[in-house]
């Protein structure tokens, strides 16, 4: 039986749309398959390439980073984490987790804003400089950890 | 607060001139060495280890003071006879954005850290 879980954390990002795109790609590549060492290269490459192609076809002004990890199901542990330093008002991420009887697949999609990112003044900035637009360092996105643990 | 357009201020960081993958690689490798060096895979600590790796890597990269956004991902896998494979693909500006991957292993685990750097264009 194939299951998938979703974790999306984004602002102004159509997560539902991205999630459906990625899920369809994973279903299309891994659906009905068992873990096979000979095919795994091709599968992970197909998943990221197809996902990326479909996302770009949406025609939105975004850059995309898609990563995919496939792990053979076993009693052994596998853990991933990610952290981002970007503009939390425009950038976003979405993760699709998929599994079947023999393997787990995790696909993460990061979508940083394209250009002319809007920064916000903060109390810690050089506030003595009075300006309308003062570039500020992007902010940290909270840590996202995904664990696929023996069970 | 001043009103009106066209007020120029000095940028707090230099404009991007291309991603220095070697520099990022060294930073990340040091972080992984510091967290996992000498350790054996331990289910109780793994959460803390992966979190430390991404946070420390990110902190050091940001300290470089360059106009980049960063995305750092880390995967740690216990060594076994079972398969593990990752892939990534990016749609970005190939002249200014970049990536680097650090692969690290010891007797009991494999660790893969990916850094993606997106140039901030003002």
TrEMBL record, chain A:
Subcellular localization(s) per the UniProt record: Chromosome, Centromere, Kinetochore; Cytoplasm, Cytoskeleton; Nucleus
Keyword Oxidoreductase: no
Signal peptide limits: none
Keyword flag Nucleus: yes
Chief location of this protein within or outside the cell: nucleus
InterPro entries in UniProt: Tctex-1-like, Tctex-1-like_sf
GO MF, one annotated term: dynein intermediate chain binding
A biological-process GO annotation: microtubule-based movement
Keywords, comma-separated and alphabetical: Cell cycle, Cell division, Centromere, Chromosome, Cytoplasm, Cytoskeleton, Dynein, Kinetochore, Microtubule, Mitosis, Motor protein, Nitration, Nucleus, Transport
Gene3D superfamilies (alphabetical): Tctex-1 (3.30.1140.40)
GO cellular component terms attached to this protein's record: cytoplasm; cytoplasmic dynein complex; kinetochore; microtubule; nucleus
Domain of life: Eukaryota
Pfam families from the UniProt entry: Tctex-1
Family note: Belongs to the dynein light chain Tctex-type family.
Function summary: Acts as one of several non-catalytic accessory components of the cytoplasmic dynein 1 complex that are thought to be involved in linking dynein to cargos and to adapter proteins that regulate dynein function. Cytoplasmic dynein 1 acts as a motor for the intracellular retrograde motility of vesicles and organelles along microtubules. Probably binds BUB3 as part of transport cargo. Required for the efficient progression through mitosis.
Assembly notes: Homodimer. The cytoplasmic dynein 1 complex consists of two catalytic heavy chains (HCs) and a number of non-catalytic subunits presented by intermediate chains (ICs), light intermediate chains (LICs) and light chains (LCs); the composition seems to vary in respect to the IC, LIC and LC composition. The heavy chain homodimer serves as a scaffold for the probable homodimeric assembly of the respective non-catalytic subunits. The ICs and LICs bind directly to the HC dimer and the LCs assemble on the IC dimer. DYNLT1 and DYNLT3 compete for association with dynein IC (DYNC1I1 or DYNC1I2).
Protein name: Dynein light chain Tctex-type 3
Protein species of origin: Pongo abelii
Gene: DYNLT3
Automatic annotation (TrEMBL), chain B:
An example Gene Ontology molecular-function term: dynein intermediate chain binding
Entries under CDD domains matching the protein: DLC-like_DYNLT3
Main location group: nucleus
Compartments, as annotated in UniProt: Chromosome, Centromere, Kinetochore; Cytoplasm, Cytoskeleton; Nucleus
Signal peptide positions on this chain: 1-20
BP GO annotations: cell division; microtubule-based movement
Keywords: Cell cycle, Cell division, Centromere, Chromosome, Cytoplasm, Cytoskeleton, Dynein, Kinetochore, Microtubule, Mitosis, Motor protein, Nitration, Nucleus, Signal, Transport
Cellular component aspect of the GO annotation: cytoplasm; cytoplasmic dynein complex; kinetochore; microtubule; nucleus
Pfam families with a match to the protein in the record: Tctex-1
UniProt similarity note: Belongs to the dynein light chain Tctex-type family.
Quaternary context: Homodimer. The cytoplasmic dynein 1 complex consists of two catalytic heavy chains (HCs) and a number of non-catalytic subunits presented by intermediate chains (ICs), light intermediate chains (LICs) and light chains (LCs); the composition seems to vary in respect to the IC, LIC and LC composition. The heavy chain homodimer serves as a scaffold for the probable homodimeric assembly of the respective non-catalytic subunits. The ICs and LICs bind directly to the HC dimer and the LCs assemble on the IC dimer. DYNLT1 and DYNLT3 compete for association with dynein IC (DYNC1I1 or DYNC1I2).
Functional summary from the UniProt entry: Acts as one of several non-catalytic accessory components of the cytoplasmic dynein 1 complex that are thought to be involved in linking dynein to cargos and to adapter proteins that regulate dynein function. Cytoplasmic dynein 1 acts as a motor for the intracellular retrograde motility of vesicles and organelles along microtubules. Probably binds BUB3 as part of transport cargo. Required for the efficient progression through mitosis.
Protein name: Dynein light chain Tctex-type 3
Organism name: Nomascus leucogenys
């Amino acid at each position: 039986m194939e299951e998938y879980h979703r974790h999306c954390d984004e602002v102004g990002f159509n997560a539902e749309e991205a999630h459906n795109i990625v899920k369809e790609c994973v279903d299309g590549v891994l659906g009905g398959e068992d873990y096979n060492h000979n095919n795994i290269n091709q599968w992970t490459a197909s998943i990221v390439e197809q996902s990326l192609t479909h996302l770009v076809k949406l025609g939105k002004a975004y850059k995309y980073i898609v990563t995919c990890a496939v792990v053979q199901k076993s009693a052994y542990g596998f853990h991933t984490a990610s952290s981002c330093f970007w503009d939390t008002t425009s950038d976003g991420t979405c993760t699709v987790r998929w599994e079947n009887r023999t393997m787990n697949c995790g696909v993460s999609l990061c979508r940083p804003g394209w250009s002319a990112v809007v920064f916000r003044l903060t109390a810690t900035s050089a506030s003595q400089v009075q300006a309308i637009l003062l570039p500020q360092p992007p902010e940290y996105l909270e840590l996202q950890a995904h664990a696929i643990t023996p069970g």
